[in-house]
């Protein structure tokens, strides 16, 4: 349900972001303004589909996906001062400190024992972010509840580091959540990098818990991402995918983000 104040707020932000609502913003795709304020344009027998309805109610949801240290946070930082857009970073600090415990660190030390613990908490925190109201028309998230399951839980399970029963319980939770809660996504931006690039960036970033990560781990995550988002042969893909070559340096990435702002922001 959209309250009138929220709709007014969105209109205001929109006109600041992309000019007056009468302007052409279609970009070859359906106008985002039309899908944000369809009430003004549609009659009783609307042909509005579920995606349009979602955009109207929740705004546009963009998930930035990619391997560990592929540059997702940097991408969100780049777009963070865009008017009409709110960024939601992965809550890594929570994963490192929940009431004084560090499930991320524990998982890297002993995945068989702590994989379920970390992934249960990741699933909860991602659900929290998906359902958090945003006053901005565009919500840009770092990863999603989908990659938590289809990439990280699957990797633990497929590599023999998660017990069948742990995997079954997480899967039951995941399936209940996605059928019971509206977690729709409008666009997935996949930052495609080589595992070697990520390994180098991860070493430079120097996050304590991640010191134990070998290159092979990044290969495994990479190949799960490729199967899910590029080949689209493993698990359901919840939204159209925009693939960006993210192997380039920071300056080149910024230039690319600036030049492709409209397609990245699903305008
Ligand atoms: N295009 C890039 N070229 C070089 N270094 C980068 C690039 N993008 C990010 N980095 C650096 O790599 C590390 C990981 O980037 P980050 O954005 O935190 O990745 P992620 O959020 O995907 O884990 C950080 O130290 C960041 O400054
Ligand atoms: N479901 C998840 C999500 C993330 N992680 C780990 C991977 C990294 O060590 C860290 C944060 O990821 P980044 O943003 O740096 O790509 O969290 C995980 O184990 N399970």
TrEMBL record:
It is found in: Mitochondrion. GO terms for cellular component: mitochondrion. ATP binds at residues 66-74, 201-205. The keyword Oxidoreductase does not apply. The active site is at residue 142. Its main location: mitochondrion. GO terms for biological process: carbohydrate derivative metabolic process; DNA biosynthetic process; nucleotide metabolic process. Gene3D superfamilies: P-loop containing nucleotide triphosphate hydrolases. Pfam families: dNK (PF01712). Residues 62-259 form the Deoxynucleoside kinase domain. Its EC number is 2.7.1.21, 2.7.1.74. Keywords: ATP-binding, DNA synthesis, Kinase, Mitochondrion, Nucleotide-binding, Transferase, Transit peptide. It catalyses: thymidine + ATP = dTMP + ADP + H(+); 2'-deoxycytidine + ATP = dCMP + ADP + H(+); 2'-deoxyuridine + ATP = dUMP + ADP + H(+). Transmembrane segments: none annotated. One of its GO terms (molecular function) is thymidine kinase activity. The keyword Transferase applies. Belongs to the DCK/DGK family. This is Thymidine kinase 2, mitochondrial. It comes from Hymenochirus boettgeri.
């Amino acid at each position: 349900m959209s309250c009138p104040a929220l709709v007014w707020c969105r209109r205001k932000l929109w006109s600041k972001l992309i000019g007056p609502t009468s302007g052409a913003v279609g970009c070859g795709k359906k106008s985002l303004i039309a899908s944000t304020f369809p009430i003004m344009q549609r009659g009783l027998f609307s042909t509005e589909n579920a995606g349009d309805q979602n955009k109207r109610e929740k705004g546009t949801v963009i998930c930035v996906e990619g391997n560990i240290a592929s540059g997702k946070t940097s991408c969100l930082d780049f777009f963070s001062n865009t008017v009409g857009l709110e960024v939601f970073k992965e809550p890594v600090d929570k994963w490192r400190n929940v009431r004084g415990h560090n499930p991320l660190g524990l998982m890297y030390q002993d995945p068989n024992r702590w994989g379920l613990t970390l992934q249960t908490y990741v699933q909860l925190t991602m659900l929290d972010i998906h359902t958090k109201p945003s006053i901005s028309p565009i919500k840009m998230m770092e990863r999603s509840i989908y990659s938590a399951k289809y990439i990280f839980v699957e990797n633990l399970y497929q590599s023999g580091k998660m017990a069948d029963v742990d995997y079954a319980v997480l899967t039951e939770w995941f399936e209940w959540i996605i059928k019971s809660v509206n977690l729709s996504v409008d666009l997935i931006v996949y930052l495609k990098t080589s595992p070697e690039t990520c390994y180098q960036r991860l070493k430079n970033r120097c996050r304590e818990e991640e010191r134990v990560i070998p290159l092979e781990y990044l290969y495994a995550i990479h190949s799960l991402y490729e199967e899910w988002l590029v080949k689209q042969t493993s698990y359901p893909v919840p939204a159209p995918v925009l693939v960006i070559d993210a192997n380039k340096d920071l300056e080149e990435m910024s230039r690319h983000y600036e030049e492709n702002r409209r397609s990245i922001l699903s305008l």
